[in-house]
Specification:
alpha+beta, four-stranded antiparallel beta sheet, 3 domains, 11 helices, 14 strands
Length: 294
């Protein structure tokens, strides 16, 4: 491992000043679970590491006017176990639960998981399905952007060199909206997703017609993607087995997987079909259980 200069700022202003000064030679560290491996293997060789852990304002989960605000330094384990998230954003807690090992979840952060911009990141699909927005801060001030527009490619985001992701803002879904995140990987834990699928569905309680649908895929394109054509096919209809099969085939067509050591493109498309069907049926079951008070 090559040597580097280490900074541990106590404020966002100090951190942004450091980023602005050192530019491309600096890397931000949140949990460090991805960054330190890349440095050790010399995938990257930064001269400066700016550790955000001492900035207390970035480690909060708060309820604000039908939104949950999640600080970028909130750990994956905190996302998994937070009563607020479990109550209002259950799909996000589900995704956190299947991310890596307990040790990784205790160190890794929600902001790090998103900013690393891995196509297989587990938290990105459910957050996109939930219409999450990101709050970023830099020298020119604060700006917000939909998470759906945050990713450019593997390892690439719209963050400017002097910007830091500070908060994820997630609108709380209506009571008749439920979601499911399913992940397929060779091992049950500590493995990257071969395919990840987040499904979020809103049903009209009077006639059980789908009024809104979100289907978001991970690990089957350079960035997480929404299956917008398939979503439109679900909306305005009662969901039955025949419709779900059509939708799953459409989702597979919208995916753009590659072949690699973890699976061929054809295999990934087949897994997409299976996970989409399962996630839709599991989500419908959750909505029905809610209306029955289960």
């Amino acid at each position: 491992m090559r040597s580097f200069n280490y900074y541990s700022p106590k404020t966002l202003t100090e951190a942004i000043d450091l980023l602005s000064t050192y530019g491309t030679e600096a890397k931000i560290m949140a949990g460090g679970t991805d960054l330190l491996i890349e440095i050790k293997e010399e995938v990257i060789t930064p001269k400066y590491i700016i550790d955000l852990k001492r900035i207390a304002d970035l480690n909060k989960i708060e309820y604000h006017k039908n939104n949950l605000s999640i600080g970028a330094l909130v750990t994956i384990r905190e996302v998994e176990t937070s009563p607020l998230i479990s109550r209002h954003l259950r799909i996000l807690a589900e995704a956190a639960f299947v991310l890596g090992s307990l040790q990784i979840r205790n160190k890794g952060t929600i902001g790090g998981n998103l900013c690393h911009a891995s196509p297989s990141a587990d938290l990105a699909p459910p957050l996109i399905a939930l219409d999450a927005k990101l709050c970023m801060l830099g020298k020119s001030g604060e700006r917000k952007e939909a998470l759906e527009n945050f990713f450019i490619g593997p390892g690439l985001t719209i963050l400017n060199l002097d910007e830091i992701l500070i908060e994820i803002q997630v609108p709380i879904p209506s009571p008749n909206t439920k979601g499911t995140y399913l992940k397929f990987s060779p091992r049950k834990a500590m493995d990257l997703a071969v395919v990840g699928v987040a499904t979020l569905i809103t049903l009209d309680s009077s006639n059980l017609v789908c009024t809104q649908a979100r289907i978001v895929l991970g690990a089957v394109a350079p960035t997480p993607i929404r299956a917008k054509v398939a979503e439109k096919l679900l909306e305005g209809k009662k969901i039955d087995e025949s419709l779900v099969k059509k939708v799953s085939s459409l989702v597979a067509e919208e995916s753009r997987p590659i072949s690699d050591i973890r699976g061929s493109a054809w295999y990934r498309k087949e897994i997409v079909k299976v996970l989409v069907q399962r996630s839709i049926f599991q989500t419908i079951e959750k909505i029905k259980n809610y209306t029955l008070g289960v």
